[in-house]
Specification:
There is one protein chain. Helices cover about 20% and strands about 0% of the residues. It is mainly alpha-helical. The protein has 2 domains: about 15-50, no CATH class; about 60-99, no CATH class. The longest helix has 13 residues, at about 30-40. It is elongated and about 50 Å long. About 0% of the residues are buried.
């Protein structure tokens, strides 16, 4: 039994951070430590010291005219099939998606 978190709307991105880390060596423990640091700054404090760049690919194989890394989540959400019908190809991260 869950909290229904996936059924709620969020004004922030939700991603999965692996325990072992990604290609940069940043894992879930480090992400949590940064979030706790930012949370300790309070609303009246300076801007968050730690920020993240979300550079995830959500879609299908790229068209030959564009590199895969050039596609955005907006591109994959607006994907259409050969008949012109909406057919989003976004792949959820970690098996979960907030779309």
């Amino acid at each position: 039994r869950g909290s229904g978190l996936l059924n709620q709307k969020h004004d922030f991105p939700v991603v999965l951070a692996s325990v072992d880390g990604d290609s940069t060596g940043v894992g879930a423990a480090q992400v949590k430590a940064w979030a706790q640091h930012n949370g300790g700054l309070g609303r009246a404090g300076p801007l968050p010291r730690y920020k993240a760049k979300f550079d995830f690919y959500f879609g299908p194989d790229s068209p030959s005219t564009r590199a895969e890394s050039d596609l955005t989540s907006a591109d994959c959400l607006s994907w259409r099939d050969v008949a012109g019908n909406p057919a989003p190809q976004c792949l959820p991260i970690g098996g979960q998606s907030v779309w």
